[in-house]
Amino acid sequence: MHAFLLDQYSQALPLPGEAAEEAQRRHRQLLSQAEQAEPPPIRSPGAGRPKLTPGRNLLRRLTAYAEAVLAFALVSGVPFTNHQAERDLRLP
């Protein structure tokens, strides 16, 4: 996912129609691969809710906020990161 997002960031943004659709398709594919690599925890009877791994928590957030994750590549004016101090320190 990291390499994919950096690759999208290096392209001319916002992405035109066909490229935007391809980016969304690739994002869904990566989430599907991550789902297989990071399966949900096995429930034990009577043990309450199972603890999720950090990878599983990240996958849940990436899935829940899929539109926001790719917003920088699809919508004009949306920055790659929302951390203003980091952007101020970065060399042009």
Please describe what this structure looks like.
The chain is mainly α and 92 residues long. The protein has one domain. It is built from five helices and no strands. Helix 2 runs antiparallel to helix 4. The longest helix is centred in the N-terminal third of the chain and has 21 residues. The protein is elongated, with a radius of gyration of 17 Å. The mean pLDDT is 88.
Name the helix and strand elements from N-terminus to C-terminus, one letter apiece. HHHHH
**Total individual domains:** 1
What is the C-alpha radius of gyration, as a whole number of Å?
A: 17 Å
β-strand amount? under 5%
Give the % helix: 55-70%
Count all strands and give the number.
Answer: 0
Instruction: Categorize the overall geometry.
Output: elongated
Q: Could you describe the largest sheet, including whether it forms a barrel?
A: none
Mean of residue pLDDT values: 88
Poorly predicted segments: none
Q: What is the first-to-last residue Cα distance?
A: 25 Å
SSE class: mainly alpha
